[in-house]
């Protein structure tokens, strides 16, 4: 049996196709490229029950991933993160069937490890040995560390306000790290010039086709962990939007394989009020978003003023009858505390935003009490040590509580 049934790359805008055995970045028309698989061959060679006999990593789905030679896999054990019922929080919100997919237990502490694992593995297979990328922090940390494991050289450019922890992760990996006085789009312009000047591989969001394939394994895992039943709603904190696009792609592929039945879940893009270009575009029924000026939010991972794949995010929302919603920083912090109090989970601000979105959408009755709802927590809260300012009483030696 083949290790991968990858077929080719294709452009979702103009239909151009490209080989997966050569280095490609974006289509000639400028659009991101997506990966196509021979699903008919997979149908004939693989049953979903076979997966249960495999190791609990994202590579259990290797037929639906783009790495063609198992020897090229670069791994830190990523995948199969907890899928947790949230009964007390659900009761508090009047949502009976609330679940969390907790990505905070992945290597590097966030869901970015998925995209890095598959992206770096495929880059290794294609002979890439030097890459560059802009990042808000977590993606750069993941790619730099996985790159180090693969023996690759990396150059990472971050906004100077990026969390110190992620800056340090990039630096200790041996990457060339630079800070820019601006946001991720400013870092992107610097990387774009460096790619041209030094002939580097551009690992920017959706400027290579394979990060999304790692991210889509969130959707594959959710389906398997739910016994191949579709949830009603999936909420995702959305900056560049690769995770939401990936989940949509994964569930469509599973439906084509006949492994899941019924309608796709309604997909919800959750953004911050201080940076919500997707929300604005959805409210205006647009196909693409406008650049969000002066973006600002404590949820640094979703501070993306303009996503290259915005049209793919919006398409996934429209085609699943989903929506986009903006959450204030204050509500994120309040929800972060509630999740910890009620369920014992210290989620990141972006993850807290998804739970705050569930609360608001339940209050408006967009989500009903009986629906099955999955919220993505994309990272561990301990990567954001300065988000919460909690006063803790001090005791002198000899004092008692």
What is the topology?
Elements: E1 6-10, E2 17-18, E3 34-37, H1 39-45, E4 83-85, H2 87-93, E5 97-102, H3 112-125, E6 130-134, H4 138-150, E7 153-159, H5 164-172, E8 176-180, H6 184-198, E9 201-202, H7 211-215, H8 217-225, E10 233-237, H9 242-257, E11 266-272, H10 277-283, H11 310-319, E12 323-327, H12 329-343, H13 349-363, E13 372-377
Parallel strand pairs: 5-13, 6-7, 6-9, 7-8, 10-11, 10-13, 11-12
Antiparallel strand pairs: 1-2, 1-3, 4-5
Calculate the mean pLDDT score and round it: 96
Helix proportion of residues, in percent? Answer: 25-40%
Query: What's the end-to-end separation, in Å?
Result: 64 Å
Instruction: Report the sheet-strand fraction.
Output: 15-25%
How many strands in all? 13
CATH fold node name of the domain at 83-110 and 212-383: Rossmann fold
In DSSP terms, counting alpha (H) and pi (I) runs of 4 or more, how many helices?
A: 13
Radius of gyration: 20 Å
The dominant shape is globular
Strand count, sense and barrel status of the largest sheet are: 6 strands, mixed
List the strand order in the largest sheet. Answer: 4-5-13-10-11-12
What is shown here, in short?
With 401 residues, the chain is α/β, with parallel strands linked by helices. It is built from 13 helices and 13 strands.
Architecture overview:
- The chain has helices at residues 39-45, 87-93, 112-125, 138-150, 164-172, 184-198, 211-215, 217-225, 242-257, 277-283, 310-319, 329-343, 349-363, and strands spanning 6-10, 17-18, 34-37, 83-85, 97-102, 130-134, 153-159, 176-180, 201-202, 233-237, 266-272, 323-327, 372-377.
- By secondary structure, the chain is of the alpha/beta class.
- The protein is globular and about 65 Å long.
- Helices cover 35% and strands 15% of the residues.
- It has a domain at 83-110 and 212-383: Rossmann fold, CATH 3.40.50.
- Helix 4 (138-150) runs parallel beside helix 5, helix 8 (217-225) packs across helix 9 and helix 12 (329-343) packs across helix 13.
- The protein has 13 helices and 13 strands.
- A hairpin with a 6-residue loop joins strand 1 (6-10) and strand 2 (17-18).
- It starts with 5 loop residues before the first strand and ends in a 24-residue tail after the last strand.
């Amino acid at each position: 049996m083949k290790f991968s049934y990858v077929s080719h790359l294709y452009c979702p805008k103009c239909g151009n196709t490209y080989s997966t055995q050569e280095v490609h970045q974006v289509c000639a028309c400028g659009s991101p490229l997506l990966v196509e698989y021979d699903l008919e061959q997979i149908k004939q060679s693989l049953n979903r029950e076979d997966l249960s006999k495999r190791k609990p990593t994202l590579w259990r789905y290797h037929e639906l991933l783009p790495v063609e030679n198992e020897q090229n896999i670069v791994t830190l054990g990523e995948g199969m993160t907890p899928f947790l019922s949230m009964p007390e929080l659900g009761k508090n919100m009047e949502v009976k069937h609330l679940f969390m997919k907790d990505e905070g237990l992945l290597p590097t502490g966030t869901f970015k490890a998925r995209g890095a694992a598959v992206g770096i593995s495929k880059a290794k297979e294609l002979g890439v040995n030097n890459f560059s990328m802009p990042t808000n922090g977590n993606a750069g940390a993941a790619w730099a560390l996985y790159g180090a494991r693969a023996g690759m050289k990396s150059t990472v450019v971050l906004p100077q306000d990026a969390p110190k922890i992620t800056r340090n992760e990039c630096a200790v990996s041996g990457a060339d790290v630079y800070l820019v006085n601006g946001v991720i789009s400013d870092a992107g312009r610097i990387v774009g010039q460096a790619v041209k000047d030094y002939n580097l591989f551009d690992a920017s969001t959706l400027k290579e086709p394979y990060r999304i394939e790692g991210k889509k394994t969130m959707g594959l895992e959710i389906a398997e962990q739910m016994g191949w039943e579709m949830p009603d709603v999936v909420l995702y904190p959305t900056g560049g939007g690769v995770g939401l696009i990936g989940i949509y792609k994964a569930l469509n592929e599973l439906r084509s394989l006949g492994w899941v039945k019924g309608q796709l879940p309604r997909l919800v893009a959750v953004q911050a009020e201080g940076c919500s270009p997707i929300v604005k575009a959805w409210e205006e029924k647009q196909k693409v978003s406008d650049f969000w000026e002066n973006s600002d939010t404590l949820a640094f991972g979703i501070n993306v003023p303009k996503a290259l794949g915005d049209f793919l995010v919006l398409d996934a929302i429209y085609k699943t009858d989903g929506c986009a919603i903006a959450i204030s920083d204050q509500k994120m912090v309040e929800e972060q505390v509630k999740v910890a109090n009620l369920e014992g989970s210290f989620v990141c601000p972006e993850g807290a935003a998804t739970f705050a979105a569930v609360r608001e959408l339940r209050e408006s009755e967009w989500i009903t009490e009986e629906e099955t709802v999955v919220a993505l927590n994309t990272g561990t809260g301990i990567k954001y040590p300065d988000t919460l300012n909690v006063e803790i009483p001090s005791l002198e030696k000899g004092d008692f509580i």
